[in-house]
Amino acid sequence: MRYLLLLVSFLVFFNCEDKKTKRKKISNSITKNDSVITKTPKVKQDSVLTLEETFLPLNDDNAMAFFAEYEIENPENKVRIVTDFGTIDIQLFENTQYHRANFIFLTKNKVFDGTQFHRVVKDFVIQGGSSDSREVLKKRGRIGRYLLPPDTRHGHKHYRGVISIPSSEIENAYKLASPYEFFITQSNQHHLDGKYTVFGKVTDGMDVVDKIAAVETDGGDWPIRNVYIKKVVILK
């Protein structure tokens, strides 16, 4: 009798151990409606590439795809240019979305900070964004070399106080056009319509534009005393 009890106990113990083993084998799956759903490992958040990490450095092949996404995620359209002569507030046009996105992108990456109004022609334009600073050149190098296509279809004209940029269809575009530079008109300049892309207007600070336009320049229209853009910031 004692041997019989021992035998029964042994069989019960063995059966329990076998069931435990079987449960372990299927514990990595969830069964639902007789189908097996395998658990998917979670991807760590810091392994997801940002938009900049995906596209940079920019070039003529990927720049438009980048700004098509960037302009949706970054809807800001007001900026302030801070100079030694005062501040210039600008509203960027929403229907020139790639040029707006480009300016906002460069502003957020502080690419304009420390650059200069390097070409000044009284009663015509003040042109800014250029610099021989190594830090500025490094920032540009990280972002890439690219051009924006012209966008002159919206009827924006070169009236006094607009901000504009050379278009890439101009002959020798890489010599004349740069997404890192811009100009502000001091007076109406309609002969530029259709050749350059107007993408915003000055809302406050035209007196500052006039002061900069009045500085003394050399024979190449470069100010005798450098006119620095201290920084460009986003306005709410």
TrEMBL record:
Documented EC number(s): 5.2.1.8
Highest taxon in the source lineage: Bacteria
Record flagged with keyword Nucleotide-binding: no
Record's keyword annotation contains Isomerase: yes
Keywords associated with the record: Isomerase, Rotamase
Chain ranges of the PPIase cyclophilin-type domain: 86-234
Enzyme class: isomerase
Cited InterPro entries: Cyclophilin-like_dom_sf, Cyclophilin-type_PPIase_CS, Cyclophilin-type_PPIase_dom, Cyclophilin_A-like
Molecular functions per Gene Ontology: isomerase activity
Reaction it catalyzes: [protein]-peptidylproline (omega=180) = [protein]-peptidylproline (omega=0)
Primary role: PPIases accelerate the folding of proteins. It catalyzes the cis-trans isomerization of proline imidic peptide bonds in oligopeptides.
Family: Belongs to the cyclophilin-type PPIase family.
PANTHER family membership: PEPTIDYL-PROLYL CIS-TRANS ISOMERASE-RELATED, PEPTIDYLPROLYL ISOMERASE DOMAIN AND WD REPEAT-CONTAINING PROTEIN 1
Protein known as: Peptidyl-prolyl cis-trans isomerase
Species for this entry: Bizionia gelidisalsuginis
